Amino acid sequence: MTKNPGKYRIHPQALFNFDELVVDNFAGGGGASTGIEAALGRPVDIAVNHDRIAVAMHTVNHPHTRHYCESVWDVDPVDVCSGRPVGFAWFSPDCRHFSKAKGGKPVEKNIRGLAWVVLKWAAKVKPRIIVLENVEEFRTWGPLKGKRPCPARKGQTFKKWCSHLEALGYRVEHRELRACDYGAPTIRKRLFVIARRDGKPIAWPAPTHADPKSPEVKNGQLKPWRTAAECIDWSVPCPSIFERKRPLADATMRRIAKGVMRYVVNSPEPFIIQTGYGERAGQSPRVLDKNKPLGTV
After folding, report:
1. 105, 129, 195, 271: least surrounded by Cβ within 10 Å?
2. Cβ neighbours, 10 Å, residue 114
3. pTM of the model
4. How confident is the model over 188-222, as pLDDT tens digits?
């Protein structure tokens, strides 16, 4: 499957051993696999996801990949790899039960524990390089007290998880990276854990972009962050909220009109879209500036 580069949408480059497999666990619709293809110059060999709709989308986006529509726990790495070595294994386990966006709601131990499947792959087929991506709060992974994380034991499970990888022969490093610092027009921040067992150093990418006001951008060392405005097709018609088939209440219309005048028409830096519930006591409006990278949606 990986011997005929003529079939690929992205031409292979001499950056990877083509006898090794590339695996995307928690594959979703194919975003991570697209990034992996762009980085390695070759398709992903194996993708795993329990959701049939996600797998269907991934199949359309990555037709050269072998798909497994089942739980990551039910997939046997030895069976699916058929004796071939694994060069790169990517894991993006469910982040909702770590993210601060969940607030103080109860969390599920089984979902928080999905990252343990990484050790299953590490022990059984020993991928040369393993990468896990998650929210920054993943480093606080620890035991639960009832249905909520125990504050006194914050981070204990994460450290144990890393030590297990090290015991299996991996060197492990982790960093928080912001997408806008690498040319993506979003401020999304994520934690990346890299583990490799081939004796080579872990190489982290150097930022290519920064705040336009920073010295690095002003002296030409880095490019300015890409903005939300440059990604919007301003030629697409946008219906006015004042022209709804079912009009809003008069009081609501007046509030909207007042806000449009204050924050768009008469503002030197108009926003694109409101991301909160308006102004609160002592707080500025929670809105997005079109001249900055897009916030996390």
Report:
1. 105
2. 21
3. 0.77
4. 899 999 999 999 999 999 999 999 999 999 999 99
